[in-house]
Amino acid sequence: MKRYFDNYMIKHPVSVQPMMEIEGFLVRPGMFDLNGATELPIGVNFTIHTSGGTGCELLLFHVGEEEPYAVIPFPESYKIGDVYSMIVFELDINEFEYAYRIDGPHEPEKGLLFDKNNILLDPYARAVAGRRTWGKKRQATYHARVVKDVFDWGDRPQSDREMSDLIIYELHVRGFTKHPSSNVKHGGTFEGLKEKIPYLKELGINAVELMPVFEFDETINAREVDGNTLLEYWGYNTVSYFSPNNNYAALDDFKKEGWELKELIRELHENGIEVILDVVFNHTAEGNEDGPSFCFKGIDNNIYYILTPDGKYYNFSGCGNTLNCNHPIVQQMILECLRYWTINYRVDGFRFDLASILGRNEDGMPMNNPPLLKNLAYDPILKNVKLIAEAWDADGLYQVGSFPANRRWAEWNGRYRDAVRGFLKGDFWESWNAAWSISGSGDLYGDLYNEYNGHYAGYNSSVNFLTCHDGFTLYDLYSYNTKHNEANGWNNTDGSDDNRSWNCGAEGETDDPEVLNLRFRMIRNACTVLMCSRGTPMFLAGDEFGNTQFGNNNAYCQDNEISWLDWSLLDKNQDLFEFFKFMIAYRKKHPSIRKKLPDAQCGIEGLSTYNIHAEKMTVSRDDRIFSNVFAGYDETQQQDDLVYITINAYWDEIEIRLPDIGENMSWYLSVDTFGDEEGNYCFSEEKERRIKGSYVMRPRTVAVFTGRKNPEVSSEA
Q1: Residues in domain Glycosyl hydrolase family 13 catalytic (predicted)?
Q2: Number of C-alpha atoms within 13 angstroms, CB side, residue 533?
Q3: Residue 713's pLDDT band (boundaries 50, 70, 90)?
Q4: Among the four residues 271, 296, 472, 526, which has the most C-beta atoms within 10 Å?
């Protein structure tokens, strides 16, 4: 920051002496283009802007106290346009917290909610003050702290992985290690997650997608149900967009806000794992007319939120309010926020919750070319950062395959989830959509080349997933026909009813070995298809060892064993974990699955679908089995890379023929989810079995074959 100050003074050669004294503090006009509060060698610069406000006061608090020890009004001469800025000299950032009060008209019918007595959090606060106990109400008002950023990132270059080379692992920071079975020292924290990095590395994933880690208030809407306290556990109710959640810090983060998160990200990077943050720019924790006013409402309510003509809140988010993302002021804040996390936390990507809201106009209508999305897509700081859209919102705007600016953005592919779920459980009318999805969803995303970032938009646009935080776990997907959300207190009315799940013959927990065998086979089927689909695979933490939420498909409020990962299942289902490891490694080993390669020398086309007679086919609505081939010449290995995956979603066995790949090559069985006589489901190259001509697919089974030169040919070469 000193360098910034020195440069500023070179460009603006003015005296740095105080210009007046207010309430005993020496002050002068500040740096109007520097939002938030920033430490300087001479004091602290405070900058805030309000369009409708008529006056602004800076409040200083002793650490942990509710009443300010100083109230410093901004002189009108310290205002340019709508921006107030002031340097307060000789402040020690370790000795105070700060907030604002803004005066102005209070006319709710016009969307104006100014109140000169309302204490407001800085929307650009880098840290929210006040360490508190998780689940306990915080102090009455929000204060901010000034952050000294002295973290040394070294000179590690930014990751250059393509989207399709990622294997994304979605997790909740608290739930990942909060269960006692996690055996970490600091359960439920950034430190606890850091302790599990060796596990993540062994599993083989190379990207974690962290559910919200911005400051949020889990006690909003807290309630008691059957003796259990229910909280806003997931964190989709943002309080501050620039501040990490201090409840996820294991130690007192005072004076080093965000330090543990930065250490976590650095260590993940050192182990080859990228970090994607789940960000919530569709609504805030201030809610609707009945919600609190602690930040945006009191600064410029009619700018930051989309309002009805009578000053009420449009609720396209389903959470009470909707952020007015395409107002220039809000665009600026979002862009600065993403830049801040990219620069100061070295984040590799962002997943945007209910991202279709980002494309709504100030009247709530969808826009054809939303300026915010375009600005994010072409921002130079964000050029190599992954941008992932949840391309729908709570008001029915569904844009999977048509999200604006999708030649730069990737999308959570909801069509993939629905079609593949349906087909694998026997909904054969989904076969056509499933085949397209597994092939990379070319019908949705095409194969256009993006000249801006040098990538093909097609298969880099699709994030393929069968499970995420919102819905069943993979184990529950094959253990329950219907949701069981009674513990949420809404009489099982919340959560989706369209799950495309199947209990395999018994609802919930069972000791029936046939049912259990089928369930785990279905899980292996899902894993195999996901890892052998073109696009970017993502799965939910714990799926790799059969974690369950006991049928709850909307566990947003469950801060308990329903949502916490039960690590004892890792020992119980070790074979499932080993299967996931194998499939992840297999995907990494075969680039033909992930991307276009030069034509294979054996003559097999790069991406085709086959029927049981080894003939190319167009999948029809009622096909019960089909095969996909991924082929190309791997220039790194100097050989053809051939993968053939066959999906038998039928309840009887079917014999298939494999396509001819020449006399010097054969297909070798790498995966059969039904298993052999010894209970093996996957086979290393040394243990693969050569398949000549045909293969019998057992009921409800997926098999993967690898094409390579025969040993006698390789030895002669």
Answers
A1: 170-587
A2: 33
A3: low
A4: 472
- State the residue for tokens 């369009």: 51
Question: pLDDT tens for residues 342-367?
Answer: 999 999 999 999 999 999 998 889 99
The dihedral of CA 169, 170, 172, 176: what is its sign? negative
Q: What angle do CA 576, 547, 532 make, to 5 degrees?
A: 50
Q: What are phi and psi of 188, to 5 degrees?
A: 80, 20
What pLDDT sits at residue 132? 72
Confidence of residue 50 (pLDDT cuts 50, 70, 90): very high
Helix (H, G, I), strand (E, B) or coil at 117: coil
Query: CB within 8 A of 317, min separation 6: which ones?
Result: 282, 283, 323, 354, 357, 393, 394
Question: SS3 for 110?
Answer: helix
Cα gap 21→70, rounded to integer Å: 13
Chain centre to alpha carbon of residue 13: 45
Please give the distance of CA 515 from its chain centroid, rounded to a whole number: 33
The whole-angstrom separation of Cα 197 and Cα 548 is 22
Cβ atoms of 703 and 669 closer than 8 Å:
yes
* Rg of the chain in Å (alpha carbons): 28
pTM: 0.95
| Residues that are catalytic | 353, 390
Read off the amino acid at residue 309. P
Work out the number of other CB atoms within 10 angstroms of the CB of residue 248.
24
Residue 263 is encoded by which pair of tokens? 């250490």
Q: pLDDT by residue (tens digit) across 434-491?
A: 999 999 998 898 865 444 444 445 678 999 999 999 999 999 999 999 999 999 999 9
DSSP class of residue 514 equals H
User: Residue 177: CB partners within 8 Å, gap ≥ 6?
Assistant: 184, 186, 187, 188, 189, 192, 193, 195, 196, 565
**DSSP per-residue codes, 542-595:** TGGGT---TT-S--TT--STTTS--THHHHHTHHHHHHHHHHHHHHHH-HHHHS
Q: Residues 353, 282: contact at Cβ < 8 Å?
A: yes
User: Do residues 56 and 74 touch, judged by C-beta distance below 8 A?
Assistant: yes
The three-state secondary structure class of 225 is strand
Q: Residue 513's CB: how many other CB atoms inside 10 A?
A: 8
Q: What is the pLDDT of residues 430-448, one digit of tens each?
A: 999 999 999 999 889 886 5
Please state, in angstroms and rounded to a whole number, the distance separating the CA atoms of residues 38 and 17: 18
Q: Which residues pair with 643 in a beta bridge?
A: 630, 706
Which amino acid, one-letter code, is at 115?
Answer: D
Cα gap 643→232, rounded to integer Å: 44
Which residues touch 286 (CB under 8 Å, ≥6 apart)? 292, 293, 294, 295, 296, 297, 320, 321
